[in-house]
Design goal:
About 25% of the residues lie in helices and about 20% in strands. It has about 800 residues and is of the alpha+beta class. The radius of gyration is 26 Å and the shape is globular.
Length: about 800
C-alpha cells in the first residue's frame, strides 16, 4: 500500500465559498507551532500526531525522577532532558502526571550494563538536548541529543516510522521502557525476535488523575492495554531485558509493572528491553511501528494498512503534513500578522487533536466492559478521550462546526461506551476507562450541542433516551463517596435528593460541591430539554426545561451585605456559612465569584436575580477590572476572571445579553492580545483537550457558542479581515468579512447577514448550520447603540 493511502480517509468534498483573497493563507500547516503551550502550564506536547490520531509520538522529559515527569503531559519546554519518546499522549490534561505517555523508546549511546529501571534519577539512561537541535511540525518531530544520538519521527493515524541515528564510534542501543507510562503501570511485557528483527509487547495501565489528593486513590486502577509491534531494517548486534534492578543480557522476554504511585513506592520497579546495532558502516537505524488497543495482530495490521514497507520518515511526514493542511483548511483566514496567524492555526491544530481514534483499521476497539467490540453500522471509527467538563463549553462546538462527521462518530462512541458501562455515561473518558474526573453531566450537554448544530450520524434517539434515563433514574453509584470530591463515581450524584430539593445539598450530594453540581446539572438539563424539543418529545422538554432553572435555588440574593451570589445549601435549606465570594467551598476548581456567572442558558434570569441588567453589567465590570479600573484578566485573583480554567470562560460574552455588547468586544480583545500569544507560554493554562485553544479560535472569528445545547452564536469583533469557515464534507461555507479588522478597530459598528442589516449581537443557529455571509463594520471606538434593543437581546 502506498504512503499516499494515508490521505484516503481524510479526503473530503470541497466546500463552496467565495473566491479567495490574495492574502488568504494557502497552507495553514505552515503557520502551526506545536511548541505553543509547552511551557507555563499549557501542558501541550510537541511530538508527531495526526488529526484525531491514535499515536502521538513525543518526548518524555525528566527532572531527575523516573516516577515523575517535568510536566503533566510528559514534556516541558523548560526541561531539556529526556528519557524516551512515548507513543501516546493527551493534549493539555491537567492532572500531573497526565494520561498515557506509553512505552517510551530511548536511543542510548553506550553499553547497557545495568538495569535502566534501577536508574531511578534518570542520570545514566537519559540525555540532554538543546532547542536549537529540535524541530516540531504537524505530524513530524525530530531532535538531536547531546549524546550524539538523534530521533526523527513521523506518523500515520495508528503507526509511525522513525530514524534513530548514532555516533559511529560508540555503542548504539535502543531502550524500550515498556512499563514506564506517565502514571506507571500494572504490568508490561516485551519480546525480542532476533531472527525477524522485531520487538513487540504491551503495557497494562490507566490511573488517570490517580495522584490527585481529592479522590485520586480511587483511580489507581488499570483500564486499558496498549500493544506495539516494531520492526527494524537490520539485525540486532546485541539484545537484553531487565526486570526491576536485574539486567539480563541476551534475554529476549521480560514482564513487570511499576504500580501507580511515585517516589520510593515506585522507584526501581518495572521492566523493559533493549536492542543494539552495529553502526560502523551505517549509523542510521530505521524502525517501523504500529500500535493497537485490541491486540498485537491489530498493531501489525494497522502498520501494514497505513505505512508502506519502504516508506521513509520524509514520505510519512509529507503525507501527515498534507493531512493536517487539509483539516486546517476548514478555516481559511486572510490578512493578519504572522504571529496572529501562528497563534490562530496552532490553536486550531490543538482543537483537532482530539477526540482520538481507539479503533483499529478493521473496526475493532476495546469496550468499557473490558471486551473487544466492533464499531456500529454506519460508524466510521470509535473515538475516545473525552474531557467533558472542559470540552462542552467550546471545543465540542468547534468540532461540530468543522468536523461534523467526526462529531457524530464521537457521539456514537460515547453511546457505545455507556451501553457497555451499564447505561452510565462517564464525564471523563480515557481510552476505554471511566475515570469520573470533575463534576456535572457534560455528556448530556455535549450530545445535545451536536444535535442542535446539525450532527445526525449517530443514534440520536437511543442516546437521548439513555441520557434522559441517567438524568431521571437514580443509580446506586450516586450515593457513593468513592473518589470524592474530585472523581466521584456518581454521574448524577445524589439524584433522588436533587430531584426532591431541586438543588444538590452540600451535606448530602456525594459530589465535589453542591453549588457547582447544581449549576452543572442545570446547564445539562436545559441542553437536554432543547434536544427533546427538537426530537418532538414535548413532555420531556417541559420537565427538563424547568430543571434548567434550578440554578435559582442556589442563588442567595443576600449572600453578602451588598450582593447576591451562588452559594451552597444544606439539605434542610440553610445556606452553607460562613460565606466568602473568594472561597471554593461548594464549588469545583473555582470560586463563588466565578461560578455565579455560570448560567449561560438563562442570562436574563441571572440579571434579574442581580437586580436588573444594568446592575449585572456593573458587577461584570468588576469581574474584569480591579477597583482602580485597570484590567484583571490574567488570573490569580479569586474574585475576578480566570482565563486558565473553564467555569468562567464564557463570561466575556455575557455583556451581549446585558445590552452592552461593546464591552464584550473590548474585553475579548483584551484577553486575546494579552493572555494568548505565540511561543511556549502562548496558552493561559491547561489546554484541556483543546478547550482553551477553541476559545481563542472562536474569539478570533468573532463568534462564540451562546450556550450548550444550542447552535446560536454570540458576536464580537473579528481579529482577521476575512475568514471562510468550510465544514468538512459540506458544500456550504460561512464567510466572515471584517475589512477594517486591526488592533485599533475591535468595536462593532454594524453587521450584515447575507447582505441584510443585522441589529442583534447574536447569530441564529441556522446561519451556523447552513452557512452564508457575515459582514462586520468595525470601528476604533465603542458604538453604544448597536444591538442594544432590550427586546432583541440574547436569551
Amino acid at each position: 500500500m502506498a504512503v499516499g493511502a494515508l490521505l484516503a480517509p481524510l479526503v473530503e468534498a470541497p466546500a463552496a465559498s467565495a473566491a479567495p483573497r490574495a492574502d488568504e493563507v494557502r497552507h495553514p500547516v505552515d503557520h502551526v507551532d506545536p511548541l505553543i503551550g509547552s511551557a507555563g502550564g499549557g501542558n501541550t506536547y510537541p511530538g508527531a500526531t495526526l488529526p484525531f490520531g491514535m499515536i502521538a509520538w513525543s518526548p518524555t522529559s525528566t527532572t531527575g525522577d523516573q516516577t515523575n515527569t517535568a510536566a503533566a503531559n510528559g514534556y516541558s519546554y523548560d526541561t531539556t532532558r529526556v528519557r524516551g519518546f512515548s507513543l501516546t499522549h493527551v493534549n493539555g490534561a491537567g492532572c500531573h502526571p497526565g494520561a498515557a505517555g506509553d512505552v517510551p523508546i530511548m536511543p542510548f549511546v553506550g553499553e547497557v550494563d545495568s538495569s535502566p529501571t534501577a536508574d531511578t534519577k534518570d542520570q545514566k539512561y537519559a540525555a540532554t538536548f538543546s532547542h536549537e537541535k529540535e524541530k516540531a511540525e504537524p505530524g513530524h518531530y525530530r531532535v538531536g541529543l547531546d549524546s550524539g544520538a538523534a530521533a526523527d519521527l513521523a506518523v500515520s493515524e495508528r503507526a509511525g516510522v522513525a530514524d534513530f541515528s548514532f555516533p559511529q564510534d560508540a555503542p548504539a542501543r535502543l531502550l524500550f521502557r515498556t512499563s514506564n507510562s506517565l502514571n506507571g503501570s500494572e504490568n508490561a511485557h516485551i519480546e525480542i525476535d532476533r531472527e525477524r528483527h522485531k520487538v513487540t509487547g504491551w503495557v497494562l495501565t490507566g490511573a488517570f488523575c490517580g495522584r490527585r489528593a481529592n479522590g485520586g486513590e480511587n483511580n489507581r486502577k488499570t483500564y486499558y492495554r496498549l500493544y506495539f509491534s516494531a520492526s527494524f531494517d537490520r539485525a540486532f548486534s546485541t539484545v537484553g531485558t531487565w526486570e526491576n534492578d536485574r539486567l539480563s543480557p541476551g534475554a529476549t522476554t521480560a514482564d513487570g509493572g511499576e504500580g501507580y504511585l511515585t517516589g520510593a513506592d515506585r522507584a526501581g520497579r518495572g521492566s523493559g528491553g533493549y536492542v543494539g546495532f552495529d553502526t560502523a558502516r551505517d549509523n542510521d537505524v530505521r524502525m517501523r511501528l504500529g500500535i493497537s488497543y485490541v491486540s498485537l495482530a491489530g498493531a501489525e495490521a494497522n502498520l501494514r494498512a497505513e505505512i508502506a514497507p519502504r516508506a521513509s520518515v520524509a514520505d510519512v511526514a509529507a503525507a501527515g503534513r498534507a493531512a493536517w493542511d487539509r483539516r486546517l483548511r476548514a478555516i481559511r483566514i486572510s490578512g493578519g500578522s504572522e504571529p496572529r496567524r501562528t497563534a490562530f492555526y496552532t490553536a486550531l491544530y490543538h482543537t483537532l487533536q482530539q477526540p482520538n481514534l481507539i479503533s483499529d483499521t478493521d473496526g475493532r476497539y476495546p469496550g468499557m466492559d473490558g471486551a473487544p467490540h466492533r464499531i456500529e453500522r454506519g460508524q466510521t471509527a470509535q473515538y475516545s478521550n473525552f474531557s467533558g467538563w472542559d470540552q462542552y463549553r467550546a471545543q465540542v462546538q468547534l468540532l461540530a462546526l468543522l468536523q461534523p462527521e467526526v462529531a457524530g462518530d464521537f457521539a456514537q462512541s460515547l453511546l457505545n461506551f455507556a451501553r457497555q458501562n451499564g447505561g452510565v455515561w462517564d464525564r471523563w473518558v480515557h481510552i476505554s476507562g471511566a475515570t469520573h474526573v470533575m463534576t456535572g453531566d457534560p455528556s448530556a450537554a455535549t450530545l445535545a450541542t451536536f444535535y442542535a448544530m446539525g450532527v445526525r450520524n449517530f443514534d440520536a434517539k437511543g442516546a437521548f433516551d439513555s441520557l434522559y434515563r441517567q438524568a431521571t433514574v437514580p443509580h446506586p453509584d450516586g450515593l457513593s463517596d468513592k473518589g470524592c470530591p474530585g472523581q466521584c463515581e456518581g454521574q448524577r450524584p445524589g439524584l433522588a435528593q436533587y430531584l426532591e430539593s431541586r438543588y444538590a445539598a452540600q451535606d448530602a450530594c456525594h459530589c465535589w460541591g453542591g453549588a457547582a453540581e447544581t449549576l452543572e446539572d442545570s446547564v445539562a438539563d436545559d441542553a437536554l430539554a432543547r434536544w427533546a424539543r427538537l426530537l418532538g418529545r414535548t413532555k420531556e422538554a417541559d420537565e427538563l426545561g424547568a430543571r434548567g432553572g434550578y440554578w435559582r435555588n442556589v442563588f442567595n440574593p443576600r449572600a453578602t451585605g451588598t450582593a447576591g451570589y451562588v452559594q451552597a445549601r444544606n439539605r434542610d435549606g440553610s445556606w452553607v456559612t460562613p460565606f466568602d465570594p473568594a472561597s471554593d467551598r461548594g464549588f469545583a476548581q473555582g470560586s463563588a465569584a466565578t461560578y455565579t456567572w455560570m448560567v449561560p442558558q438563562d442570562v436574563q434570569g441571572l440579571a434579574e436575580a442581580m437586580g436588573g441588567r444594568d446592575k449585572a453589567a456593573a458587577r461584570l465590570d468588576g469581574f474584569f477590572h480591579k477597583p482602580d479600573g485597570s484590567w484583571s484578566v490574567r488570573g490569580g485573583d479569586p474574585l475576578r476572571y480566570d482565563p486558565t480554567n473553564e467555569p468562567g470562560i464564557h463570561a466575556p460574552w455575557l455583556y451581549n445579553a446585558l445590552g452592552q455588547p461593546w464591552k464584550t468586544q473590548e474585553t475579548v480583545r483584551q484577553i486575546v492580545t494579552t493572555v494568548y500569544g505565540t511561543g511556549p507560554k502562548g496558552l493561559p493554562g491547561n489546554d484541556d483537550l483543546g478547550t482553551m485553544s477553541a476559545w481563542y479560535v472562536f474569539a478570533a472569528l468573532g463568534l462564540y457558542p451562546q450556550a450548550p445545547g444550542r447552535a446560536e452564536a454570540l458576536l464580537t469583533g473579528p481579529l482577521f479581515p476575512r475568514a471562510v469557515i468550510a465544514p468538512a464534507g459540506q458544500r456550504h461555507a460561512l464567510t466572515i468579512d471584517a475589512p477594517d479588522a486591526s488592533d485599533t478597530h475591535p468595536y462593532v459598528h454594524a453587521v450584515r447577514v447575507n447582505g441584510r442589516p443585522h441589529d442583534t449581537s447574536w447569530l441564529d443557529g441556522s446561519v451556523v448550520r447552513q452557512g452564508g455571509s457575515l459582514s462586520f463594520d468595525l470601528a476604533d471606538r465603542p458604538d453604544t447603540g448597536w444591538a442594544t434593543d432590550p427586546g432583541r437581546l440574547p436569551r
